[in-house]
Structure formats: C-alpha cells, structure tokens
Amino acid sequence: MIAGSLIRSAALVPAHPWPRRRLPGELWATMAAALAGTPGLDLLAMWADESEVYALLLDPAVPEALVASVGVVGGAYASLSRARPVAAWFDRMIHDLWGHVADGGVDQRPWLDHGVWPMHRPMSGRAAAVSIPPQPPEFLPVDGQDIHQLALGPIRAGIIEAGHWRLQCDGETVLRAELRLGYTHKGTLGLLRGKSARAAARFAARLSGDATVAHAIAFARAAEAATQTPAPPRAAVLRAIMAELERLANHCGDVGAICEAAGAVAMAARLGLHREQVLRASAEAFGHRLMMDCVIPGGVVGDIAPGGAVAIGRALDGIDEDIDEIRRFDEPGGPLAGRLVGIGRIDAALAQGLAAGGPVGRASGRGHDCRLVPGYAPYDRFEVEPVLLRAGDVDARVRVRVGELAVAMGLVRRMLPGLPDGAVSVALPPGSGEGLGWAEAFRGDCWCWLRLESGLISSGFLADPSWRHLPAAEQAARDGEVGDFPLIERSINLSCSGIDL
Predict the structure, then answer these.
(1) Tens digits of pLDDT across the chain (501 residues)
(2) How far is 29 from 6, CA to CA, in rounded Å?
C-alpha cells in the first residue's frame, strides 16, 4: 500500500501499542494524494492540537493502526478529503476548535461552531472573542424547479438528540439530505485536559450515553497503553460482559424502534420489554442500568454482584424465548420485510470508502469488527462470528442486529462461568506516554488516543463510529421517499452526541 508505506517511512514518536509517525508537510501532502490509490487503508478519525494535525488509519491486512501527524504551517495543512470524503467533517471540526485550515478541503463550512460561543477557536491557545453575529446554517443547493425543503429538528418529537436534518425534495422524493450537528457539543476534549486518566474517565463515559461502556473501554485501554499497564484478566472479561450486555440492550431498542416506525407496535413492545430486562439485570450485576462509570483505567470499579450472573441469565432466557419469532418477523414474507427491503441502501463501495462499522458496515458487506481486527482481550479467547450481509438496505441492517443478539448472548454465556480469579483493577503509574485504545460498540468501532504527561492528559481524542456513518446516512436518504426517512434514520442510528464532542 503506497500511502501506508509513506506513513511508515516517517520519523517515529514513541507510543503504544504502535508508534506514531510524524510526517513533514511535503510527505503528508504526498500521502494525502496517494490515499486515492490505496483503497484498503481506512481513515477512522482526525483531530488536532495547537501545533499538529493527526490522522488515525487502519490497515486491516497487517493488522495495524497507523497514527500519523503533521505540523501546521501558516495555519494550514493538506486535507485528506479528496481521497477520503469523510475527512471533510473532521476538517470542519478541526477548524472550529483549533482554527487550522484544511488546504484543498472539499468543504469549509462551520460544523460545531454555530456562532454562539463566546470565543472562536477555543482550543487553539489563541482564542479570539466573537465579533460577528451568528449566521443561519448553510446547506448545499439542489438545482431544479419546484424544489422544496423539509426541515427536521434540531428539536423533534420524543426524547431524541438534537440534530438538524434538511431534506431537499421534488415532491415526495428526497434529492439531497444534509445533517447539521453541534447542538449537543459538551467540550469533552477540553474537559479531558489537565486531568488524570481516572478523573477524566467520566467524560469519556458520557460522550455517547448509549455506548458508555464501549467508549469507557476504549478510553481505559488508551490510558493503559500509554502507561503500559494492562488491566487484570478478570477485569478484561467483566468489561466484555458489560459490552455485550450493552450491545443486547441497544440492538433490542433499535430493532424495536424500527418496528414501531413500520407500524409493528406489538413486536416493538416485546423488544422494549427485553431491553428493559437487560438493563435491570445490568443494574443488579454491576450497580447501574447503563453500567456507566463501571469501567475505569486499570480495570473495573467492582466485581460482579452476588446473584448478578443469575439475573443476566434470566434476561438472556427471555430473549431466547422470542428470538425465533423476532427472526421470522423480518424473513421474506414476514410482516416487516415488505416494508424494509430496498430502502435506504448503502452500497458496498460506499461502506468500504467510509470505513463504516457495526451493523451499518456489516449489512453492506464490510465485515470489520475490532474485536477481531486489530482484536483485544478477552475476545482472543472467545470465538466471535460477525453477521455479514450485502444488501445494504434497512432490512439488512435489521437482520444483522437480530443476528448479533444471538452472538452476544452466546459470548456472555461462555464468559460468565469462566471468569478468571484475581483482582479487578490496578493503579496506573503517573507516567508519560501516548496510547491508542479501541472497543467494539453496538454501532461499530470506538477509538481513543491519549497523550499523558506526568500522569495528566495533555491531549486526547475520542472517535465515535457515527462520524463515518453520517455521510452514509445522508447518501442512504437520497432518491428515497420522505415517508421512508424515519426508517432509514433509525436503522443507521447516529449518535449526535458522539460526533458533537
């Protein structure tokens, strides 16, 4: 791979489990151009600090994650967006937070900054007071006659995150769909700075509340990598059990929401009951329904409670009793299939180009699962079988989720009886270093990069898979009917909070 070789030729910066590569500006620009001819190298995230821009890429053939950085010269860096379109959203975020300009970027519009912050470039070290009034969001135009716009959000019916969809339509046909976020920006990256990994773990756990376990695991593993202090084996298995319970609860909720949008309210209610039973079992076993703040750098806060395994088993048995009927509901000829087949299609090329993960990617033929590649403990001791389909439509995303219910239940049932003996946490030393961590959430792969200096975080980034699913969602809605949009949106299930940082 040409781009991968260029990155590996650059100077090393010590980091774990793989070194960071610091590219001079000319080599970064050459690498950016070479990415167009390197389709197998996945761009997962980009971020910055005051003086450098970083890119996280995955070479699944090795497997190896590549963290590359380039110094910002004259306030600019070469954009990767012409070769990797998803980079455009990261470019916009980097400009809003740090003020660095993506030279050659395909989209220079604001992203997180809606013009209501008291300061521009708040993380740049050279923040400037706002001097112009806020402007309305700018959306890309659509040519044609009789085009009308449908605005959805940022405040919508029900309990839902704030995001503004703008659908430009010809009659009932959606010609362009754009999502504007930033309404749930929390300043997470700034809140991490200057804190110990243990104190900052609370902010990672709240990046996206429905994936609190997965983001906490990715954050904890990054801190453990930076200090070269692995969590105890018992803690690693307990984390995995929590992550699979989180996957079960969310897949039940997502499939139930799609059933509700399609009018299958009885099945939606049953799936809602199963989600509630998993949440109650999680609370009994680990002390919190969402298991928030249960995963910490160095391990977990406490062992599984007496009776927790029995409670988890009851919840799994309840899903087992209905799993065959849930499958039949979406089989050919079932009550849902006719409504879901063929809508919201994300083709294989788009899924691969965006490095889409989780059910979104696996429903479109991209079988990536970071429990397997690059992999992490304890999944190296437990067989994981990703559910892979190729249709790429709403129906396929539902069937992937239903298939993953059985996989997750099987993992939990194999892990619980064989919990290793020993401690559930260790203290991290107050050292310095850089580390990369990852975890497979119900949406896909979560990543975290941290730099520690004398035990305190000097810089970091948390990447939710929704960054890479957002452009897929916009594409999936195009050329469809307005009435199909709720099904498409729910089948992809973006985390606005996870992107808004």
Answers:
(1) 689 999 999 999 999 999 999 999 999 999 999 999 888 899 999 999 999 999 999 999 889 999 999 999 999 999 999 999 999 999 999 999 999 999 999 999 999 998 888 888 999 888 777 767 777 788 888 887 888 999 998 988 777 889 999 999 999 999 999 999 999 999 999 999 999 999 999 999 999 999 999 999 999 999 999 999 999 999 999 999 999 999 999 999 999 999 998 888 999 999 999 999 999 999 999 999 999 999 999 999 999 999 999 999 999 999 999 998 888 877 777 778 788 999 999 999 999 999 999 999 999 999 999 999 999 999 999 989 999 999 999 999 999 999 999 999 999 999 999 999 999 999 999 999 999 999 999 999 999 999 999 999 999 999 999 999 999 999 999 989 999 999 999 999 999 999 999
(2) 10
Strand order across the beta sheet in which 52-59 lies? 11-13, 20-23, 64-71, 52-59, 42-48
Which residues, 6+ apart, have CB-to-CB distance to 376 below 8 Å?
Answer: 221, 370, 438, 439
User: Cα–Cα distance between 237 and 226 in angstroms, integer?
Assistant: 21
**351, 354, 360, 364: CA torsion to nearest 10:** 10
Angle between the N-to-C axes of helices 466-477 and 485-492, in degrees from 0 to 180, rounded to the nearest 10 = 160
315: domain CATH number is: 1.10.645.10
CATH number of the domain at 62, please.
3.30.460.80
Nearest to 57 by CA among 110, 5, 96: 5
**What is the C-alpha to C-alpha distance for residues 437 and 15, in angstroms, rounded to an integer?**
11
Note whether residue 454 is domain-resident.
Answer: yes
From 96, 124, 152, the end of a domain falls on 124
**How many domains does the chain fold into?**
2
Q: In the structure encoding, which two tokens stand for residue 107, read together?
A: 């989209």
The parent domain of residue 50 ranges over: 2-124
- Measured distance CA(457)–CA(276) in Å, rounded: 36
The 8-class DSSP code of residue 374 comes to I
Indicate the residue type of 93: M
Taking the whole predicted model, whether its pTM rises above 0.90 is answered as yes
Query: CA-to-CA distance for 246 and 479, rounded, in angstroms?
Result: 34
